[in-house]
Amino acid sequence: MMGWGGMVLGVLLMLLFWGGLLVLLGLGAWALIRSGQRQSDRCTGTGSRALDILKERYARGEITREEYEERRRDLEV
Q1: CB-based burial, 3-32: b 16+ in 10 Å, e otherwise
Q2: Is residue 55 part of a domain?
Q3: What domain count does the chain have?
Q4: pTM exceeds 0.70 for this model
Q5: How many CB atoms lie within 10 A of CB 70?
Q6: Is residue 9 part of a domain?
């Protein structure tokens, strides 16, 4: 028999295993959440950049007010 030392070592290894598994699951969930936020930021940023370009074109006189309003409504949908 291994005695108390073997039993304590077994419990420690079991805790290490389950703790490591929980850490890996937590990191995986965190990575999935962060990837979803980055994708959402990209979608929001794209529309914002398009609106900025539209404003610049209107300011330079490349498009009329009617064209600006129509395209702005299209972008905000």
Answers
A1: eeeeeeeeeeeeeeeeeeeeeeeeeeeeee
A2: yes
A3: 1
A4: no
A5: 12
A6: no
The residues, any chain, with a CB within 8 Å of residue 51's CB and separated by 6 or more, are 72, 75, 76
Q: What is the separation, in whole angstroms, between the first and last Cα of the chain?
A: 73
pLDDT tens, 2-49?
A: 677 788 999 999 999 999 999 999 999 999 888 877 665 555 555 588
- Residue 69 domain-assigned? yes
Provide the residue type at 41 as one letter: D
Token pair, residue 62, equals: 């490349």
Tell me, yes or no, whether 23 lies in a domain: no
Beta strands in 18-64 (DSSP E): none
How many angstroms separate the CA atoms of 10 and 70, rounded? 70
